[in-house]
Design goal:
It holds the Pfam family HTH_25. The protein folds into two domains: about 90 residues, 434 Repressor (Amino-terminal Domain) (Orthogonal Bundle), CATH 1.10.260; about 70 residues. About 80% of the residues lie in helices and about 0% in strands.
């Protein structure tokens, strides 16, 4: 088999068929692959059958296929074809439009940031005031108790002095 025939064979295969063939060549079952990759067997089965993946996002599916391909040691030529096929299915997003909308978002909501900081400042002031008031009340209670103790001691000492006289 020459190189041209090999390329035709690879491109005629689907991603799932290539992965299934490589797995079978290694003598592994779908269950073993699923256990190693920590995926459900149904996801491995869907990948091999090129079926729809209703509960798996495109990004995760791409990662699962790459991990699977690396596990079964797919040749780099087939892996690059898989990468090309998968990446072509991703929608292209213009970065400049996202950056512009982000700047507009910041301009529109700067008042929200200011209000948030003001609310945080007010809350800190209120907590500080509450702490100071409770500290003063507790300090007054401690002073009152100590004053009473000193007064009792003075009365006892005074009684002792009077009793001796």
């Amino acid at each position: 088999m020459n190189i041209g025939e090999k390329k035709n064979q690879i491109t005629s295969n689907t991603i799932g068929k290539s992965l299934k063939k490589a797995r079978e060549n290694l003598g592994l079952s779908q269950k073993e692959i699923a256990k190693i990759l920590r995926l459900k067997v149904s996801i491995i089965d869907n990948i091999e059958n090129d079926a729809e993946h209703p509960h798996v996002s495109q990004t995760f599916l791409y990662g699962y296929i790459r991990a699977y391909a690396n596990l079964v040691k797919l040749p780099k030529t087939e892996l690059s074809l898989i990468n090309n096929k998968m990446q072509s299915s991703f929608p292209r997003i213009k970065a400049t439009s996202q950056i512009k909308s982000l700047k507009q978002y910041k301009k529109k909501d700067i008042w929200l940031v200011k209000i948030t900081w003001l609310a945080i400042f007010i809350i800190v002031i209120l907590i500080g005031t509450w702490w100071w008031q409770s500290y003063r009340i507790n300090y007054q209670d401690i002073l009152n108790i100590k004053t009473l103790q000193v007064e009792k001691k003075i009365k006892r000492d005074f009684k002792k002095v009077n009793d001796k006289n």
